[in-house]
Structure formats: structure tokens, C-alpha cells
Amino acid sequence: MNQIKSVSAGYFDGVWKLFASLKLTIALLLSLAATSIVGTLIPQNQELKEYFQAFGPFLFQIFDVLDIFDMYHAWWFQLLLLMLVLNITVCSIDRLSVTWKIIFPKVPKFKASRFINNPNMKELNIHRQPDDLKSKYESVLNRFYSYTSFDRTDDGIMLFAEKGRWTRLGVYAVHLSIILLLVGGLIGSNYGFEGFVNIPEGESADQIRLRNSGKIIPLGFTIRCDDFNITHYRNGAVREWRSSLSILEDGKLVFQKDIIVNDPLRYKGINIFQSSLGELGPETSGAADVHPIKPGDDIILDITSTESGMSYRKTTIIGREVAIPEGLGTFVVTEYRPDAQFRGQVVGEAIVGIHKMDGADPVEILLPLHFPAFDKMRKGQAVFSVAEQTIEKFSPGSTPEMRYYTGLQVTNDPGVWVVYSGFMMIIAGCIITFFMSHQKMCVHIIPKEGGSIVRISGTANKNKPGMWKKVDRIADEISQLT
Amino acid sequence: METTQLVSPYILSAVTFIYALAAVLYIFSWIFKTPVADRWATWAAVTGWAGNTAGIILRWIESYRVLESGHAPFSNLYESLIFFSWTIITLYLILERRTANRVIGAFCTPLAFLALAYASLSPNVSSRIQPLLPALQSNWLIAHVMTCFIGYAAFAIAFGVSLMYLLKSGSGDSEGAMMQKLPAPAVLDDLTHQLVVFGFLFLTIGIITGAVWANSAWGRYWGWDPKETWSLITWLIYAALLHMRLMRGWQGRRIAIMSIVGFMAVLFTYFGVNLLPGMHSYGASG
Ligand code: HEM
Fold first, then answer.
1. ipTM here
2. What mean pLDDT, rounded, does chain A reach?
């Protein structure tokens, strides 16, 4: 029995020691830094078939097993974070349990030897007896320090003063805030959601689609989009998207607000953000100025070879294959979409085509008419775009009666306040740890013939040069007393 | 709307040359012991700083003239580079006063010069004043950019000081005149630490203000996009540095190397991320 107990106690001790070690901290911080790089090199949360095309079957398998395609949520990354939390917790408990009594004794203790042997000591000669000086010096120290005491020693009187004992806790605040950040993040991802909904002007919605799973969930209230407006700058760039929203419960209006980017609506813990916009297709809006591309209409394509940088212009129609120079295969436009979407974001009018090249699988490519540089993002060997004259036809200015729908991001994050308190705590903790210190001062008054020798010295757990200046300052004040 | 109507880019191009001159003078006064070059170097840096300050303020004013609604000049790559060089020189001049050592200038002013030269001369960086897109219309953006770049500037100077440390400690006792003019290794080591501490605080605040901004614009404070992730990587490296220093034996050379690695991460966060897939609204050169 005893033996088992001590073995498991020994085992526990070992684990405790491991998690109390600063070596593990550094290993964890650097591993987190190094592994995080992977997720910035490989785009996250794309469709699996894109990865398959990019990496081939073998690498794909390996990456898939390691969850590289969603690595920040992979078990091994979360494990690293968990170990960091354990590390911080154990380390803090370990150190605080030892140092708490030292940091916060009932009566602060001063070690006379640390001041007597201090190399940065100031010495003054004063023509007065020690007992005359004591109370005067005490009041000087009281001005600068929160705690003072004195001690009569063999050779005179020692006045002590200190402040900032509590600043030794700053570093624990920093560490606790890391835990708050991670816990807050965990609460958010487990109990919150992130979704979106598109609402045409004048219509309403009471459910949203989740971004990750695509599941549709009810909101518990209705959002109505009363009005949607875009304003543009003179150069045509978007200046503002504004949606006038009403919140209805059981058909009754309970809340109203105009939202713009950076100024969301918050209702019952749910946040509604202006995130995108879409134009309603011509069928539903009936706007006269839209010229959808019909079968047989000319479509002008610009194709740029990534390797040579050369651009080629080709005219085609839906269904007709065009050959691309430089051995870049063929391209065929398969359809026109009035309101295409790309990963849940509305991109408006677009054409879709298929690019075939020898030795590679055919790729389906989306070419939004309003975003000519869109296909660059794909980083393919050839970059496609629909030539400008078609775009002009669809520019925002030319279709004033266009009806829009507003694209709303809808989120709920019960952990956000935990995270925000972590934010405030880490800033406060860093300022305390970096710029404040626990300072002790000692004024030693030694009697001599016709007066006293006064020795002033100080110690601090950080910023020693600052302390030396403080000693000078106190010495100045004291020597000016009459 | 045209660049030709703006005065500030001309001032800032001139400042580029003044910083180049300052850099040359600092290096000159380091190599040849001439007190005259010393004094002139500081004057050049101060003049450049004044021009840099004027350029930023003028650009702010000009934005109100050129655009229907003006904005603080912290909204694109050009403006951030200008602010970057301004913070480097500001911090450096404070440091020069406090340490009374001008050799550090030989390692700092070239960085400010490079940042401005890249802003003024690179064809990839446009000096046009552009209107703010909806996502950028937030006071958090200003807080975010300012704090990040104060942090970056501190790290940049820490990088310069770390290089000096490596040079000095690598030179051994072969008392070359140039090496002699460098501050003692212990001083450089301490300076690196102080600058990293300062930078770490501001990077922390920078990341936090960025997160709060993202939360007000997109409803999420953290999305693991490459720019965010790289700023976290940078932050982790410096956090590791601070902890390494607290362990016995991690001083001097190893800390200098860490601070250099950290600054590489800063540069990658700033420039390299644009080469990666993904879209941080603020990253693209414009
Ligand atoms: C991302 C996570 C962390 C951050 C941002 C962080 C931050 C800091 C900071 C800013 C300091 C003060 C350094 C200075 O005074 O120059 C510090 C000190 C320290 N940290 Fe951490 N830390 C982290 C994780 C950890 C972990 C996991 C441990 C657990 C072993 C740990 C143990 C310590 C210790 C023992 C000190 C020294 C405290 C003292 O001076 O008494 N840190 N940390």
C-alpha cells in the first residue's frame, strides 16, 4: 500500500515538476510559434478537393490525418494550448505557495545587511543629534513610501520604508490573463455560434446559416431589413453600407437600429454585423438596367500566363471552348450566374468556366464580373478575368434602381467578456511587471561627535538605476532640511 | 485626387534623403573619431524627424482637402511606413539623449531610412491618399496601427542594438577603434532587454486593439488569418525571450540572437504576409 502510494506520489511529483518548469514554458511558446506557421502557409478550411488537387493523394492523406487543413482546432494544437494552461497554473501555484508569505508578511521585514553593504550608498554629515533627525526624516520617507518603520541598532537608528510590495503580483496577473483568454476562447467556440443570413430589402429572416457546418438554426426573433443603402466615394469605392434593421418578437417591433460596418446591432447576446451586400438577380428585382449574359452573347476574356506575364484576349460564348497559348490548355464558359456566392459571401454576377490542362484535373473557375482580380487569389498557372467592357455595363453607378440584399454576419459569443477582461488584465499586468517595482529605502543615522552621519541606500526588485536616482532624491531632500 | 497636388510626398521624399545623410554621418562618426560628424549626425536626424512629423501632419490635413472625408494617416502601407520611420527616429533620439552614445545611431537611422525609402521609391507602394473603406472607419484602427508600430520600432532598435552586441562580443579583446566605441556588452544587453520589454507591451496592446477592432467590424476577435497569426508568432517569440532571460545563463549572445529572430518575425508579419494566401484587409499594398 505504502509503496504504491509513494510511487504514485513520486509520479505526481514528477508531473508537477515538469509543469512547474520554465523550460517547458519556453518549449511550449516556441512550439506554438513554430506550428502556427504551418497554418499560414497552407490556407485553412478550404474545400477538401482543392487540397487534394494541390498536394496529391499522398501528402493529402498525411495532412488530413494531422488535421492540417483546420490545424488551429486540431487535437494536437489544442493539446499544446492545454499544456500551456497547465504550465501556467502549476507554475503560478508552485511559486505563489512558496513566496506568498515572503511577499506579504504581517509586518514587513528589512534586512539591515542589504543596506549596510549596498555599493550605491549616499553619505551625508549633519550637525545634529540622531534623535532630532529621526522624526523629520520619518516624515520625508512618509511622503514617498506607504510603509515606514524604524529600528534602534548598536550604532544608531535605522529608518526603513517601502512601497510597491503588491507589484510582485503583476506577473501573476499576466499569467492568469492568458488563462482567461484561452478559457474565453473555449467558451466562445463551444457555446457560441457564427453564422450569416442574407435579407432582401423589405423582407425578414428568423433563422441563420452557420458558417462552419452550414446548418440552419432559428434565432428566436425576426430580423427585418427595412432599408439598405450603399454610398460611394467620388472615385467609386464604397463609402458606407447601411442597413436599417428592425427586430421583431412575436410580430411586435422591439428594437430598431441602422447598422454599418464597425457599428453592429446587439440584441439578447446576439450581434448582427454588416458584412456584405448582394444585388438581387434580374428575375426577382426586375431592374431594367441589368444585362445578363445570355447564351450566344459575346464574352471577352483576359487570360494572363503567370509564368510569362503575357496577357491574351479571347472572345467566346457560353459553351464554346477556347485554346490558351503557351500550352495552358483550354477554357470553356459553362454558365452565367446573376448572384454567385463564394464561400458564403455574395460576389454578385459571375460567369463559371472550366479550365482543362494536360496532366492536371479540370478546375472549375468562378469569375465575378465586379472583381476583375478575383482569380489571382487562386494562384493558378493562368489567371482569368472577364474583360472590362462587360464590367462597365454592371458598375454600381449605372444601375440606380438596383435592389439589394444585405449580408449580415450573426454571432453569439458568451466568452467575449472573459476574453476582454483577459485583455485588460494582461495590459495592466504588463505595465505593473515592467514599470513598477517593490522598493525599499533605508536611512541609517549614526551618532558622531557634534552631529550624525546619515547613510541612505535603497533596493528594488527591478529597475536598479531608477532606485539609485531615488536615493539621490531622498538624500537631496534630507540635506535641505535644517 | 492626384498625387501631383499633394505636397506631403515631396517633403517625405526629402526626409528620406535627410535620413540617408544622417545614417552616413552616424556611420562616419563611428568609423572616424570626429566630434564634428557626431554633432552633424544628430542635427540631421533631428531635422529629418521634424520633416517627418510635418509630413505626417500635412498629409492628415491634405486628406481633408483631397477627399470628401479626411482621415488620420494610418490607413495603408505607405502611411504605415512613414509612421514606422517616425517612431524609429523618435525612440532613437530619446535613447541618444539618455545614453549619450551616438554609435547606436549608426544601426538605427539606416532602418528608418530604409522604411522611408521603400515608401517613397518603391513602385509597389502608392502615396495616393485614398478614402477609407467601411471596415477601416474605426478609431480602433488608429489605436491599433499606432501601438503596433511603436512596438515594431522598439523591436527594430532592439535589433540594431543586438547586432551591436554580437559585433562587440564577437570582436573579443582585439581592441579595434571601431569596436571600442561600441558601448560595453552589458550595457547593450540591458538595452536590448529594455527595448524588448517596451516593444512587448506595445505589441500586446496592438494585438488587443486589433482584436477589438475585428470584433466590432466582423464579429470575431480572432480568426487565425495569416496576419493575425504572424503577429501572435512574433509575440510568442518575444515572450519566450523574456522568459529565457529569467533563466540563468540566458543573457547576452543568446538573447541578442532571439531579438534578431523576433525582428525577422516582425518583418514577416509586416511585409511577408502579403505573399501568403489569405486577405487581411489592411495588408495589401495600396
Ligand atoms: C503566453 C504565455 C506567457 C506570457 C505572455 C508570459 C509573460 C510573462 C512576462 C511578461 C513576464 C515578466 C518578465 C519580466 O519581468 O521581464 C513573465 C515572467 C515569468 N513567467 Fe511568464 N508568460 C507566459 C507563460 C508562462 C508560463 C506557461 C509559465 C510557467 C512556468 C511562466 C512562468 C514565468 C515565471 C516563473 C516568470 C518570472 C516571474 C518572476 O519574475 O518572479 N510564464 N511571464
1. 0.89
2. 83
Locus of grid cell 473603406: B133
The CA distance from A5 to A2, in Å, is: 5
pTM over 0.90: no
Residue type, A35: T
DSSP, collapsed to helix, strand or coil, labels residue A89 as helix
Q: Helices then strands (H, E): number in chain A?
A: 11, 20
Mean pLDDT of A153-177: 90
pLDDT tens digits, B197-213: 999 999 999 999 999 99
A437 lines ligand 1 (CB under 6 A): no
More confident residue, B19 or B29: B19
CA distances from B157 to B28, B110, B163, B183, B269 (A): 19, 11, 10, 15, 17
- How close is the Cα of A175 to the center of ligand 1, in Å? 7
Query: B140, B134, B143, B111: which is closest to B281 by C-alpha?
Result: B134
Q: Which residues in chain A are contacts of B1 at CB distance < 8 A?
A: 234-235
For chain A, percent helix, then strand, then coil, each to nearest 5?
A: 40, 35, 25
Cell of B190: 540591458
Full DSSP string of B63-110 = HHHHSSS---S-SSHHHHHHHHHHHHHHHHHHHHHHH--SHHHHHHHH
Identify the residue among B75, B150, B233 best suited for mutation to test binding to A, counting A beta carbons within 10 A and taking the highest. B233
Nearest to B161 by CA among B186, B137, B144: B186
pLDDT computed for residue B283 by the predictor: 34
Q: Cβ–Cβ of A40/B205 closer than 8 Å?
A: no
A238 and B CB contact within 8 Å: yes
Q: Which three cell numbers stand for residue B10?
A: 515631396
Residue of B130, B198, B239 with shortest CB distance to A29:
B239
Which of A264, A411, A426 lies nearest to residue B204, judging by beta carbons? Answer: A426
- Is any atom of ligand 1 closer than 6 Å to the C-beta of A102? no
Element (H, E) at A295: none
**β-sheet bridge partners, residue A368:** A350
Interface probe with A: pick from B193, B218, B235, most Cβ of A within 10 Å: B218
The per-residue pLDDT for range A329-383, each reduced to its tens digit, is 899 988 888 777 777 666 778 888 999 888 778 888 988 887 777 887 787 888 8
Residue position matching grid coordinates 552586441: B165
Q: Give me the amino acid identity at A268.
A: K
CA distances in angstroms from B35 to A72, A139, A340, A392, B121, listed in the order given: 55, 48, 69, 64, 32
Closest by CA position to B258, among listed B277, B245, B267, B247: B245
Mutate to test the interface with B, among A28, A32, A40, A406 (most CBs of B within 10 A): A40
| Alpha-carbon distances, residue A320 vs A299, A357, A360 (angstroms) | 10, 16, 21
Distant-in-sequence, close-in-space partners of A124: CB < 8 Å, separation ≥ 6: A453, A454, A455, A456, A475, A478, A479
Grid coordinates 480572432 are at which residue? B222
Tell me which residue of A478, A364, A480, A470 sits closest to A120, measured CA to CA: A470
Chain B residues touching residue A434 (CB < 8 angstroms)? 197-198, 200-201
Q: Which atom of ligand 1 is nearest to the CA of A22?
A: 30
A29: nearest CB among B201, B211, B240: B240
Domains present along chain A, CATH in parentheses: 2-95 (no CATH), 112-164+437-481 (3.30.310), 193-286+404-412 (2.60.98), 299-379 (no CATH)
CA of A110 to the centre of ligand 1 (A): 27
Count CB neighbours of A258 within 10 A.
14
**What are the strands, taking DSSP E only, across A285-329?**
299-305, 311-316, 321-323
B243 vs A26, A36, A262: nearest CB? A26
